[in-house]
Amino acid sequence: MAKMKKIGVLTSGGDAPGMNAAIRGATRTALYHGIEVVGIQNGYQGMIGGYFKQLKSHMVGDIIQRGGTMLKSARSDEFRKEEGRQKAYEMIKAEDIDGIVVIGGDGTFKGARIFSLEYDVPLVGIPGTIDNDLYGTDYTIGYDTALNTIVEAVDKIRDTASSHNRLFFIEVMGKDAGFLALRSGIACGAEAILIPEINRDTATLREHLEADYKRRKLSNIILVAEGDETGGAFNIAEQVREEFEGYDIRVTVLGHIQRGGSPSAFDRVIGSQLGVAAVEALMDDQKSVMVGLMNREVVHVPFNRTIKHHKDVNRRLVDIQDILSI
User: Fold this and answer.
1) 131 has catalytic annotation
2) 98, 106, 131, 144: which is the annotated catalytic residue?
3) What predicted TM-score, i.e. pTM, was given to this entire model?
4) CA-to-CA distance for 274 and 254, rounded, in angstroms?
5) Are residues 85 and 152 in the same domain?
6) How many domains does the chain have?
């Protein structure tokens, strides 16, 4: 393959704190090696529309501390179609882009893999999602910041729960994965955690609450992943309310507050680290791979593996939660 002369960088899917650190890392690494950098705005939709802007070192000099993404993000139904991808290819060829760094999650990588196969364009992915659910990496960009946001919010809710003897059901993000709920629940000292990976029916929760009720423990925090099969925090709270009249029950849905905010030091570092690694991978003729972190080392994982394989929660943490919730 000829030497990389110009690369594109885009962010796609849901935003995650630390994406800007990855953009900065990729941009400055490319410039360090004499490679031009084009920022592709609004993800794949921007690729189709030709929303390109040349990035210089000073343009990424004041973004590492900011949440969100300076390149913006958008979901693109058009890119799912062959005609849309054809337009995108024509745009990047007209711009003389030799390779692309894509920052996002599972859906982003699915699109990147299809595009790379159809048009033989080198694409390297950086895992950016607060859910931490991508196979092939121990951590995704944004996960640590989201965890700390949840912990801070739940700590404040616990103050009022204790003051008024209330039972709070707190819903956190994680439609298909309980990584956020599990780890933040342990960090917050939650009395129970409901996640999609573990079949905890309402009968099990009922037993737990009955034991607490007998001990006159009327203030509880229960973390619920939004994708839990029991139906979400409001549904579970309603079932419990019907059976336990002695509990003063409240529901809080943290929602998109979990996505925003200044990234933690950890997310800034791994965003920078993986931004550098992604450009180096393109320079090394890698394509259709994700750069991730396994045991603190950078790894290259083919898109088809990170898309097809399921990443499970740490079952030992589930056991630890059960032990600590007595």
Assistant:
1) yes
2) 131
3) 0.92
4) 29
5) no
6) 2
